[in-house]
What we know:
Layout: H1 16-20, H2 24-28, E1 36-37, E2 42-46, H3 50-57, H4 63-66, H5 68-74, E3 78-80, E4 87-93, H6 102-110, E5 124-130, E6 134-138, E7 142-152, E8 155-164, H7 170-202, H8 216-228, H9 240-254
Antiparallel strand pairs: 1-8, 2-8, 3-4, 4-5, 5-6, 6-7, 7-8
Amino acid sequence: xxxxxxxxxxxxxxxxxxxxxxxxxxxxxxxxxxxxxxxxxxxxxxxxxxxxxxxxxxxxxxxxxxxxxxxxxxxxxxxxxxxxxxxxxxxxxxxxxxxxxxxxxxxxxxxxxxxxxxxxxxxxxxxxxxxxxxxxxxxxxxxxxxxxxxxxxxxxxxxxxxxxxxxxxxxxxxxxxxxxxxxxxxxxxxxxxxxxxxxxxxxxxxxxxxxxxxxxxxxxxxxxxxxxxxxxxxxxxxxxxxxxxxxxxxxxxxx
Length: 255
């Protein structure tokens, strides 16, 4: 679909094309291969552990409480699908009505009818999460991706880019601006959530995860981490100098 992904070393995952094949037909109608970048790559460093970022992004039930604009746009129709074969899908169909918040109301009013899309995709944002750290977002007027990379125990780079139609209409450009306003607020809210989550993990009172049925996406992510990095199953953190060796030994024992 126009994205180029680079793998520097062999890994246990299939190719991205193979992972995304179940969603190829759904993604292809957006025409992302023919789109162009809006502002190029953007990146920020967040002062949290990488796992805190992923934990927040792997469950969507916090939308109703933490993201007023997204709740206004698609909160009543949003749902997450389980992580299957390395990919999960989330779908946010627009709420009935035009919305109450200014940015949402204006976005719904100005965004042109996406006649190039199937009817069920014309009024929705669709997310494809690819384990462990990549997300593709398909919207009627734009497509984007974002990723997170740990650069230290308490620092994470969040990078991404947005793409638009080459022959973008004035209405599409205005809708993209309003979408950016919604996304800007959402990103700031998520940063606060990741900081709180990171603080909780570092607290002396933290005794482990107790997940609800609503957090099946989070559990699936943790299960994959434990499978690939078995040292993560240990109750006590090993010393840094032996961590890698110990993890290799545990992997050999599994095989």
